[in-house]
Structures are given as structure tokens and as C-alpha cells.
Amino acid sequence: LEKMTDLVAVWEVALSDGVHKIEFEHGTTSGKRVVYVDGKEEIRREWMFKLVGRETFTVGATKTKAAINIDAVSGFAYEYTLEINGKSLKKYMENRLKTTNTWILNLDGTDYRVVLEKDTMDVWCNGEKMETAGEFVEDGTETHFTVADHSCCIKAVSSGKRKEGIIHTLIVNDREIPEVVE
């Protein structure tokens, strides 16, 4: 494996199916462009005469749209920006905080990352979309699923405040799991 001597940018992107590492090589003398997602080569272009431009690809099990923009800043200096679903990485992550909840838990010595997509109520665990059962309860809803033979439940209750909206809580083995911010 050749050494990545032209590596100019590395990003970590948290999606529902996991945290993905995106690496970008840009050879400004050869015009080479290489995009790696989780260490796997997605795009390779040799001898590009145009040094600026855009490379588009997908990330993760959900085939999330991504693009790297290459812009000339001055002379031979370049700026590399990553877009996810048409938004800058910063905007995408800010929006994601509003549309998802994420929990990290350890069961029987194994780490699990559980993600709730609030708009669809889909639940993901370590990259797999979970089989869930939803039910209405007195104070809201409960979404039930199983992780490593442990019964899990995401409770959704109204905060009673319009700005806060609905509060989602993950309960595993009758224990509340604290939410993490990625």
C-alpha cells in the first residue's frame, strides 16, 4: 500500500449507522484526487488538469450523499470543505442534533451506539437498523427493541414546553442511559 503523502484533509462524520472517517488526498502537482471512506478507496482520479472542483460520493449503509469541494484560496493554496446531504458539515451536524438522539452503552463488556431518528422513529444500533415495536402509553409512547438479549425501550414524553418539544429517554434493564452529544 502506497503511503498517503498527499493527504490534505480528514473528517469524522457521525451518521445513524456509525461514525465514518473520510480522508482526502490531493496531489497539487499530479492533479491526483483520492477519497477514502472508512479506509476504503471510493474515488481515484489521476492527472486532473483542473485542480479545483468537486468530488461526490456516498457514506455508510444509508448511502448518505457527500461532496468534497476543492477551492483555490491563493496561489497554490487550496481549501477543502465537506458537505453532507448538501449542507456544510457544521450545518449538517447542528441539524442532526435536533433530529437524532444518541446513546452509548456497554452491555456484557461490549459497547453499543444507539441512535434514534426522531422524524422516522427508526432506531439504529452499531450500524444496524433495529426491529422495533411501538406502543402508546399513558404519558407518551414507548419504542421497544432488543440489544444482545437485553430489552431496551425509548420513552417519548412531552416536556410540556413548546420550545423543548418531546423528550426521548433510553431505558435498558430498568436503567436510564445518559444521552451523548457527538
UniProtKB/TrEMBL annotation:
<keyword id="KW-0053">Apoptosis</keyword>
<comment type="function">
    <text>Plays a role as an inducible effector molecule that mediates Fas resistance produced by surface Ig engagement in B cells.</text>
</comment>
<dbReference type="GO" id="GO:0006915">
    <property type="term" value="P:apoptotic process"/>
</dbReference>
<dbReference type="GO" id="GO:0005737">
    <property type="term" value="C:cytoplasm"/>
</dbReference>
<keyword id="KW-0963">Cytoplasm</keyword>
<dbReference type="Pfam" id="PF06905">
    <property type="entry name" value="FAIM1"/>
</dbReference>
<comment type="similarity">
    <text>Belongs to the FAIM1 family.</text>
</comment>
<dbReference type="InterPro" id="IPR038513">
    <property type="entry name" value="FAIM1_dom_sf"/>
</dbReference>
<protein>
    <recommendedName>
        <fullName>Fas apoptotic inhibitory molecule 1</fullName>
    </recommendedName>
</protein>
<dbReference type="GO" id="GO:1902042">
    <property type="term" value="P:negative regulation of extrinsic apoptotic signaling pathway via death domain receptors"/>
</dbReference>
<dbReference type="InterPro" id="IPR010695">
    <property type="entry name" value="FAIM1"/>
</dbReference>
